[in-house]
Amino acid sequence: MSFVPSKRLLWLVALVIVPAWLVLGMAGAPLEVLVLAGVLVVALAALDALTSPNRLAGATVELPDLVRTSKGKHFDLIGLVRCPGGAARSLRIGLSLPRLLEVESPEVVTSLPADGSPAKPLWKVLALERGAFTLTRCHLETPSHLGLWDMRRTVDCQCEVRVYPDLSRERHLLAPLFFRKGAMGIHHVRQLGKGREFEQLRSYTAGDSFGDIYWKGTAKRRFPVTMMYQIERTQEMHVILDISRRSARPLEQGTGAGKEDRFAPKTQCERFIQAALVLALAAEQQSDRFGLMTFSDQVHTTLPAGGGRAHYNACRDALYTLEPRIVSPDFNELFISIGNRLRHRSLLIVLTDLGEPWLSESFAESVRQAARRHVVLVHVLGSKEFQPLFNRHDSISQVDDLYGRLAGHLMWSDLQETTRDLKQCGVHLTSSLQENLIAGVVSEYLNVKKRQLL
Questions:
Q1: In the beta sheet, which residues pair with residue 141?
Q2: What are the tens digits of pLDDT across the range 168-221?
Q3: Rounded distance, CA 202 to CA 220, Å?
Q4: 445 burial level (CB within 10 Å; 0-12, 13-18, 19+)
Q5: CA dist., res. 59 & res. 431, Å (int)
Q6: Topology of 236-451 in CATH?
Q7: What is the tally of helices (H) and strands (E) in the chain?
Q8: Is 141:151 a contact under the CB 8 Å cutoff?
Q9: Residue 332: which of 309, 359, 308 has the closest Cα?
């Protein structure tokens, strides 16, 4: 408990006591009278301070244990303030908020009801960045009995604020790709292939392929038996995020996915996180099982494939605090871990950056074993500058522009060579601009589903 002079005391001293002393002194009042007046004022202020510490006795502040929101969104933070042992009726309440949580007014003035019910202060908070933030302290202030002092006290509180990436824009743009709940009636959708999942056995009929005959059953039953297959409805997809040093590269300004540039993703890692969460929503819509892995120089997070809202929340909780690590990626360690943990044939979508020659060579050497067992798609972020040298129609005015285009041509050539090398291993590499990344990976996923590559 502490106390500071209030505005009332300061104005009283400045406008009443000091002028009164001056007037009495100029009028020739005895010194004893001036000293006695000063002593009375000091005694009155001291008595007010000594009798007021219990005004905040037993004061408590309760905040929600957990608040979930999205980056760039406002949310209401409502508290419960009780003061059963004190005589305070008017309270000034202030929160110690982290820098990345912006509040319109950190201090709120409220009144405690006379019936003893708690006060409910409200703060309007804006989340500037994703992450986990903890509120542990709240500051209370109330005037003393005579209003000459402001009594202050700091109380403990506990509130965790989880700020997730904002996916509202991406979900709105990608709704036509995988959102079907609004469809009415029966729709004929062409499905390629006959499926790989065994359904049942039946007697052989004319026209059945010899490759579908179940020879062991034929020998046992002594008449031809054909195996029937059905289209796989539930498949496994695993998204693998590279959070090594290349993922910390900043994105080009003005082309992010946020509603405002202020809240747009700033690094490749943030864009990869958004893409992974949208793929989780797409997998849930397609009734597939979704898994997640993150790696840099080692594998950090591994969530087995699952489905449902609870599994999506687990994936979101594993990603919203993810930050890049300033280390080089170890692709060999990654695919060894995949070989040990993934027993079923799955779709692997790797979000990484192969912008250095040795990275693409290391990836091509490490992915061969996994590509024999799984369907591997690699998606990298491209740039508008990565284009063939003579593919542009605008003119060159400066020598620096020529060198810049030549560098972009070399990067484009290296990407094409990496694509050809990975294609020989059975790995499909695609690149897209950062604003088209999510639409690109979702389209590739739906294309794999349509072609039944699993």
A1: 92, 152
A2: 877 776 666 555 544 444 444 555 455 555 667 878 788 777 777 888 888 888
A3: 14
A4: buried
A5: 58
A6: Rossmann fold (3.40.50)
A7: 12, 19
A8: yes
A9: 359
Position 127: which residue type? A
What strands, in cross-sheet order, belong to the sheet with 122-127? 74-78, 122-127, 101-103
Task: Return the structure tokens found at 273.
Answer: 């996180």
Burial (CB count <10 Å: 0-12, 13-18, 19+), residue 10 = exposed
Instruction: Produce one character per residue of 397-427: b if its CB has 16 or more CB atoms within 10 Å, e if not.
Output: eeeeeeeebeebbebbebbeebbebbeebeb
The domain segmentation of the chain, as residue ranges, is: 1-164, 196-230, 236-451
Residue 19 CB coordination number (10 Å): 11
Tokens 């500037």 belong to residue: 128
The model's pTM is: 0.77
Nearest CA to 446 among 171, 234, 178, 173?
A: 178
The enclosing H or E element of 351 equals strand 347-351
Query: Tens of pLDDT along 84-110?
Result: 766 667 888 888 888 899 988 888 888
CATH class of 1-164: mainly beta
Q: Residue type at 205?
A: T
Token pair for residue 313? 């929340």
Tally the residues of the chain.
454
The pair of structure tokens assigned to 283 is 């997998």
Amino acid occupying residue 172: H
Torsion from C-alpha of 105, 111, 117, 122, nearest 10 degrees:
-10
Phi, psi for residue 169 in degrees, rounded to 5: -70, -40
